[in-house]
Every structure is written in structure tokens, then in C-alpha cells.
Amino acid sequence: MSIVLSRDSQVRVMENTVTNAEKYFGQFCSLLAAYTRKTARLRDKADQLVKQLTDFANTENPEMRATMRNFAEDLAKVQDYRQAEVERLETKVVSPLKLYGVHIKQTRAEIKKFKQVQKNEIKQLEKLEKLRQKSPSDRQMIAETSVQRASVDASRTTHQLEEMIDTFQKQKLKDLQKIFSDFVTIEMVFHAKAVEVYSSAFQILESYDLERDLEDFRAKMHGVYGHYDARPLKDTMPSPAVPWALTGQNAQTTIRSQRRDEEESTEHSAEEDPVEDLRGQGQAPQQ
């Protein structure tokens, strides 16, 4: 009976391991999915800002017009990088967490199967104890044989279950390391490229020639409509060194505006998203 109790203790450890994985992977999935959605909403708001800056630029004097247009182009480029960030978060972080449910479900099924075998062993032991008290020796011998058979089955199943749980734990830790390493890498690349573009945007604003615009404005107030060339617009073609391939801004904005209609429907939802339920998800996690 002490062997049975030892196995029962092992099963509790295994069940706790699976239960904790189900709980925390579900919470990670829920929070990171919300993080990704909010990043997408930030991208959409920035797109709106780009449009407003461009509209405003068309109403201003030549220097401010050129400055705002170039500034808007840099902000639009940052949103291209943010779009790539959102797509990579969905693919490399959120999706693997969602797919973890089936792995947990399969592990639970194996533990349940073992518990059934263990239950049968206990039943045979209890039967033997009763026979020892009131049955002839031949029936007791039959019962002992049944107990031995049940014990062998339980030992074999225990060994298989130990190997499975060990594999589960190893894979869980490995997957968690990879998922969060991918998360950090995605964020680092985005912010590195964003700082680069924002530095350019800052230089654009710093080089704005206020006096030149004021001269033009004062001249117009006095009915003098002279003309001079403002600074040229920036070359907005992406650099070949950019690690994420960026399409033209118009195409990116069109794609994002199509997504925005779907995403804005959830924008006013509760701040805390429900914890993702990993039970019964459809596929196994990627290795």
C-alpha cells in the first residue's frame, strides 16, 4: 500500500505541473494578445496623425509645408515598422501560446489513464485483504496473482507517465524561453528602427526655417505674392538595409485602414481581457 501512496504523491506533482502550465500559459496568451491589439490600435492612431499632418501641411507656407510633409513621411515609416511588429507578435508569440492547449489536454488524458490503472491496483489490494480474513487459501492465491498483475501494470504505466511528464516539462520550459526571446527580439528591432527614424524626424523639425515662412506670410498680408522654392521633400523610399521589407506607404495605409474597422469595434472594451482558456485548443505547439 505504501507503493500506491508513493505513486499517488507522484501523480499530484504531475497534475500540479500541468495545472500551472494551463493557468499561466493562458494568462500569458491573454495579456500578450491584448498587448498586440493595443499596439495595432496605436499604429492606427498614428496613421490618423500622419493624415492630419499632411492635410495641415497643405494649408501652410512653403517651409512649414515641406517640413510637415517630410515629418509625416517619417511617422508613416515608423508605422510600417509597427505593422511588422504586430504581425510578428501574432505569429511568433500569440499563436504558439494559443496552440499550447492541445498539448495540455493530451497530458491530462494520460494522467487520467494512469489514475484508472492505479485505482484498479488499489481495488485488487482491498479485495486481497478481505480474502485473507475470511477465504480459503486457494482463493487468496488467485487474489494475490491479480494484485501482482495490477501492480505490474501500474509500474509500467508509472514509468511511461514519468517519461511523458518529464518531456512535457522540458518542452514547456524550452517553449517559454523561445516565446519570450522572440518577444524581446521583435520589440528590440522595432524600437531600434523607430529611434533611427525618429532621429531623422527630429532633425527635420530642428532645421525648419521660421523666419523664411514669416517673411512669406508678411509679404502676403501686404499683397505681395512672391514665390521661392521651399526645401525639397525627402526621398521616402525605404533603405535597402531595413530588416523588414516595407511596401509603399499608400499600400500599407490601405491595409491598415481595412483592419482598423475590425479592431476599433473592440477599442472600448474593458481594460482587462479575460484569461485565455487553453483547454481544448486545436493544435499542438510548434517545436
From TrEMBL:
It comes from the Eukaryota. This is CBY1 interacting BAR domain containing 2. Residues 258-279 have a biased composition (Basic and acidic residues). Belongs to the CIBAR family. Residues 134-155, 239-287 are annotated as: Disordered. It is found in: Cytoplasm, Cytoskeleton, Cilium basal body; Cytoplasm, Cytoskeleton, Microtubule organizing center, Centrosome, Centriole. The keyword Iron-sulfur does not apply.
